[in-house]
Amino acid sequence: MIKAKKSLGQNFLIDKNILEKIVSLIKIENKSILEVGPGTGNLTSCILKNNPKKLIVVEKDKYLANLLKKKFETNVVIINQDILKIDENKLHEDKLIVFGNLPYNISTEILAKWVLNLDDKNFWFDSLILMFQKEVADRIISKFNSSQYGRLTILANWKLDIVKICDIKAGSFSPKPKIDSSLLFFKPKKNFYKFQNSKNLEKITRVFFNQRRKKIKTPFNILFNGNVNVIKNLRIDLNLRPHNLKQDIYYELTQEYEKL
Question: What is the CA radius of gyration of the chain?
Answer without folding.
Answer: 20
